[in-house]
Amino acid sequence: MQYQFNEIEKKWQKYWEKNKTFAAKDNDVKPKYYVLDMFPYPSGAGLHVGHPLGYIASDVYARFKRLQGYNVLHPMGYDSFGLPAEQYAIQTGQHPAVTTKVNIEGGVDKQGNVIPGYRNQLDKIGFSFDWDREVRTSDPSYYKWTQWIFKQLFNSWYNKDTDKAEQIDTLIEQFKTNGNTNVNAESADVEHFSAEDWNRWSEEEQQKMLLNYRIAFLSDTWVNWCPALGTVLANDEIKDGVSERGGHPVEQKLMRQWSMRITAYAERLLSGLEDLDWSESIKDIQRNWIGKSVGASVRFTISPPSGESEGAIEVFTTRPDTIFGVSFMVLAPEHPLVNEITTPEQKAEVEAYQKAASLKSERDRQSDIKNITGAFTGAFAIHPFTGDKVQIWIGDYVLASYGTGAVMAVPCGDQRDWDFATHFGIEIKNIFKDKDISEGAYAEKDAVIANSGFLNDLPAKEAIKKAVVEIEKRGIGKGKTQYRLRDAVFSRQRYWGEPFPVYYKNEVPYLIDDKDLPIILPEIDQYLPTEDGKPPLGRAKEWFWDEHSKKTVAVEQNQKPPSGVWGLELNTMPGWAGSSWYFLRYMDPTNDGEFVAKDKVNYWQNVDLYIGGAEHATGHLLYARFWTKFLHDLGHIPFDEPFKKMINQGMIQGNSAYTHWLNLVMFKAIKKDLKFEINDLNVAQYSFMSEFSLSKSIAEKLIAEDKSTEELIKEKIDVAYKKHHPDFKDNVLGKDYEIYFKANSQERIIKKHVDINYVEVNDLLNIEELKKLSRNPLGKAELLLEDNGKYICSREVEKMSKSKFNVQTPDELVEKFGADTLRCYEMFLGPLEQHKPWDTQGITGVHGFLKKLWRLFHTGENESFYVDETPILASADGSPHPSGELEGALKSLHKTIKKIKEDIERFSFNTPVSAFMICVNELTALKCNKREILEPLLIILAPYAPHIAEELWAKLGNTESITYAVFPKVNEAYLVESNHKYPVSFNGKMRFMLELPADMSKEAIEKEVLANEQSQKYLEGKTPKKVIVIPQKIVNVVV
RNA sequence: GCGGGUGUGGUGAAAUUGGUAGACACGCUAGACUUAGGAUCUAGUGCUUCACGGCAUGGGGGUUCGAGUCCCUUCACCCGCACCA
Fold first, then answer.
1. What pLDDT score was predicted for residue A362?
2. How far is CA A450 from CA A24, A282, A453, in A?
3. Do both A393 and A311 map to the same domain?
4. A859 against A200, higher pLDDT
5. From CA A223, how far away is CA A531, in angstroms rounded?
6. CB A211 within 8 A of CB A218
7. Is the torsion defined by CA of A786, A791, A796, A797 positive or negative?
């Protein structure tokens, strides 16, 4: 009986669905294990083989954990709000909810393309997801709770004394009794106010003040505005100065926007990384993004140029130990003090410099780092320790947005300051003992300080501490920690996102009651901004809140709303809102009374294993940690980190295929006698005639300037030209003209992608199949083939994408080889974290292995199902049966059990596949068909190849799914060797193998080895200097 | 510039702790079988040499009886951050 994988797989997928085999049981007595994949954005393009890689690994692990007796939560859902669906809606008018549904469930899009649907594609691979727990972030029953969490964030402030978020009511209480004098909060810069002030203020004034403290707050901030997308973007959505999606330019714009006070959590987000089992690189990216700098803020008083000013410049420095090395100061050109302190003589120069700096974009400023520019303000500051006057400059290497926008320049210890001082001829003081600073600054923190008063002779690290103490003692500053992390902009001027549960009375935001949530996204006529530049929701008529009826109501355009009716927020939430807490919703996906029930979150806790791409390092992964910590602070969840262990799967790259084309512009014809070049018109005429497509080796030869190939091609061109231009006879390219190639041999060939589905084994192009296409990419081209008449393509590894014709869908492979083969093969490909190119050829090896496994169970007549039921007799002590073959089979099985368990436990998903292959190869060689060997083998194989395992498991007479079988125990007794084959080395070089009893003593082994006749050859009559014997390992003889 | 990562046959890779480098596959070469197929089976396959042997884990150096693995140094590629004071 043949291995009918298609039938088997369909059968078991149906069985699992019907029996809800993978349903996780809340509050079960078994220990819990939570395995989570980063949920996908359902795009119309569907899945390619790269997408399921991580899902297969997590599925293997989830199934493995079930076999080990865990209650496993392994859910899947969709991050279904997002830009692509909205862009598509703008183009086609199709509601994003409709396209999203089609992308998930399958169907036909507006252009008539068949969309397979994520769910259908996933189902074919045999994942053990608990689909009853599916979530979609764009579903109102889901985003109701995203809105609810937003409300919590709005109604909270960050108390630095308790170091956690607290209800805003506790803050209001303090304001009522003491004003804000004793409040230690993470907030915007706020003036002090008293209880009287607070109580006197109007409701509106109080609300405006509270926005300075709320964790979700509204403020006028400089935001990254992307005109092409018509929305603002967070810092992590911008790469190299352009939008991550679409690559559009981004500019700075002052807008009233919602933000999240994530900076309040900077320290906890940083320190929390310590205990996470994440890759060092992801942790480092987050550390970098948070960008903690420890140092001091120091005030330098401004020396009044005419005696009247009393100002001071505050700087932040990480090197207070170098304060005696300060020889000037630099302010950012935008620094508010600049205009105040600039002397009349310097005014013109400074203003010119400010103007020049403001005209440069952020990007230009960054890219132009080699040019040292600046201007002297004419003002001086007083050095707080030496009393010296130091010049105050402005320069655009100082950023207004970081620290205080001003630096104390220490040219001997900072290269930029050194460059600046050198360029403008400013004094450079050396405050490092025995360090040469004539060629550049000494930036290491290991010098000993000199010429620095009370800091003399201290190593830098101690000097830092002492300097801070002294600075604080003199009241000129204090120790301070600075972060690079900025508050996260939370508004998007987009339609396809969560609406805010917010309406405005006189520009003051008010929240909608919990019981009236969700606020459902309204219908609009077009998914574009309004004429007057409001976000798309500005088009919705029914987008007003009636405080009396507690409902959204319609107000005609340009009409004043009736009393008690107010305009709702027109922005929507960013993509990361829904994905910041989805892992919690899986625990309790249908709960309409809570975002997650207490008992369920207490049972399931946080995610034990999270698998997904590394590209979310500063976005999703940081925000999810932030929200988790916040929800923990308010007592909603019992943990403050979402994902305990994470593995980032590598990208599967496409293996693009290329055809080669003669670059017709790259040769020219020259009249032999006259040396007259025929003009461009003639060149153009070549392109009217046949094009030439070259098989790989011919293209290569042409690039290598192989003479005979050049001649061959000239001949072909000549013939082809004449065929198409019979009137020219042979006087154009025949006797009188000769074809020459241009010098740059690389450009002789143009490469074009060809669909990998038409490329066979050994890069052979299937020309026959291509011809059947209505749009044959070879067209009428003349083909120059290999000697054997074949056309060979070249290959290149690139990102998998439709435009490169290198997309491999899992569906095709499941059809041809089966889901089990695909699963094993994707794992077999290499370490999960590594990037690797897709290669379909190798899949036959894995497929062959499953067929071989199938045959082990079909040793009956005509390959019918048959296994040997006679039990293996073991001795009372559990030692192996004396029969050699059985001993071998038992050893093979137990060796494999051990390896599979150890490998999966250390997340090495590729090596178990080889172990299975070895085991099946060995059992095949031993002709082993014993139930006692084959049954445990199925259990350990089930995580990788669940369908075939279920089928054979059932054939063995089991009536329950293999999913909850018990992972077999390793019996070490079977693994004990009576003999060991020693590799015998001479001077570290392995020369021969020698089989000796495993329990032989070192001395006896040495004796045996030296007595061996082969040893005599390598000893060459000499006595060995030393013999190293490592029992059960090796023998090394030193001659 | 800073931080992280990766370099092993024609290809994907293996080698948890220093102990036979290249397991397991793909591909390739022969052969068997066959109403030819992308099926199955057998043998071979790092490079080099007729051979004994020699050389091989990006390069160079070191520690060690022994190094892909540890240390130093250097090169290449990938990812992240980048006048961050």
1. 61
2. 67, 40, 8
3. yes
4. A200
5. 22
6. yes
7. negative
Domain that holds residue A768: 655-798
Q: Do residues A758 and A788 both lie within one domain?
A: yes
| CA A77/CA A586 separation, integer angstroms | 9
Non-local CB neighbours of A500 within 8 Å, separated by 6+ positions: A147, A150, A258, A519, A568, A569, A571, A572, A573
Per-residue pLDDT tens digits for A771-796: 888 778 887 788 888 777 778 888 88
Indicate the DSSP class of residue A863: G
How is residue A836 written in tokens? 């690797």
Instruction: Judge if the beta carbon of A367 is closer than 7 A to nucleic acid strand B.
Output: no
Q: Rounded to whole angstroms, how far apart are CA atoms A654 and A639?
A: 40
Q: What is the C-alpha R_g of chain A?
A: 37
Peptide linkage before A518 cis (omega within 30 of 0): yes
Residue in A249, A202, A417, A245 with CA at minimum distance from that of residue A322: A417
Q: Which amino acid is at A732?
A: V
Q: Are A1038 and A1024 in contact (CB under 8 A)?
A: yes
The 10s digit of each residue's pLDDT in A309-343 is: 568 899 999 999 999 999 999 999 888 888 888 89
Q: How far is the CA of A989 from the C1' of B67 (A)?
A: 13
What was the ipTM of the complex prediction?
Answer: 0.94
Residues 404-423 of A with CB under 7 A from strand B: 404-405, 407-408, 414, 416
Q: Which two tokens stand for residue A161?
A: 């004394």
- Please give residues of chain A from 1018 to 1037 whose alpha-adjacent beta carbon (CB) lies under 7 Å from any atom of strand B: 1026, 1028, 1030, 1033-1034, 1036
CATH code of residue A856: 1.10.730.10
Q: Is the CB of A651 under 7 A from strand B?
A: no
What percent of chain A clears pLDDT 90, i.e. is strictly above it?
48
Residue A648 CA, distance from chain mean position: 7
Tokens of A73: 């939560």
Which amino acid belongs to residue A741? F
Residues A954, A1002 within the same domain: no
First to last CA, chain A: 60
**In contact, A568 and A543? CB cutoff 8 Å:** yes
Are A302 and A445 in a shared domain?
yes
